[in-house]
Amino acid sequence: MAPLPTSTRTLLRLCPHRSLAALSPPLACTSQQRRHKADIVQRTAGEYDKTPAFESPFRSIDQQPTTKIPDFGAYKSRKGETTNRTVQYFMVGSMGVLAAAGAKATVQDFLVNMSASADVLAQAKVEIDLAAIPEGKNVIVKWRGKPVFIRHRTGDEIQEAEDTKWESLRDPQPDSDRVKRPEWLIMVGVCTHLGCVPIGESGDFGGWFCPCHGSHYDISGRARKGPAPLNLEVPEYSFPEDETVVIG
Ligand code: FES
């Protein structure tokens, strides 16, 4: 570099440093850039050595597939992993508890709605005093919305029911299978044809007659004539005392 003339050197000596920087920005800028470069070199040699280089998916678009997603795993916070998992477990557990409570309430409501009410349960069993029914008479009681026939049979009626050749009947059944005590015949009073209520002490066999389509039942309630396919149904019943029957 050629030496400056004497007049220029004098002028430079007289000017303050700030004024000189303002007059020659390229000189100041060069110095700043130099410092910045030195700083980058120092940091690159130290802390940046461990960080993997960022690969931009757009750097060479001709050589790489455009669907490549950059891996930011190195920048992920390792500190919050345990906390995040705890929150996830808590949320899943809370949702499970809420779902179980909702399901329980739904099922419980459904079962309560479907269960029988108190008045229905009261009708589930009927207790009858048999002492009030004289021999040779019928009584009709209501049980679960259906009529139930109670017949206090005479000795002759019992004999007739037992002597019948039941094997040849359309619904073969001995009289002993239809009664618990021979003098008491208890049956649901619904015709097995189409559901009419037969009339007692009538018909060709001295038992019951259904006027709807002409079915005849004998003194044991067995279908003997007409369209009825089955014998009159015998309900569940018991004798808790000698003169008492409980139906149901
Ligand atoms: S309903 Fe009794 S005979 Fe038809």
Largest sheet: 4 strands, antiparallel
Rounded mean pLDDT is 81
Low-confidence stretches: 18-29
- CATH architecture group name of one domain: 3-layer Sandwich
Please state the overall shape, judged from the principal axes of the Cα atoms. rod-shaped
The helicity comes to: 25-40%
CATH fold title of one domain: Rieske Iron-sulfur Protein
Rg from alpha-carbon coordinates: 53 Å
User: Which CATH class of one domain applies here?
Assistant: Mainly Beta
N to C succession of SSEs: HHHHHEEEHEEEEEEE
What is the overall number of helices? 6
Strand content: 15-25%
Considering the protein shown, what is the CATH homologous superfamily of one domain? Rieske [2Fe-2S] iron-sulphur domain
Count of strand segments: 10
Strand order of the biggest β-sheet: 5-6-7-8
Family: Belongs to the Rieske iron-sulfur protein family.
GO molecular function, one term: 2 iron, 2 sulfur cluster binding
Membrane topology: Single-pass membrane protein
Pfam families: Rieske, UCR_TM
Q: Summarize this, please?
A:
This is Cytochrome b-c1 complex subunit Rieske, mitochondrial. The protein is of the alpha+beta class. The protein has helices spanning 6-14, 17-23, 25-45, 81-114, 118-122, 155-163; strands spanning 126-129, 138-143, 146-152, 184-188, 199-200, 206-210, 215-218, 223-225, 237-241, 244-247.
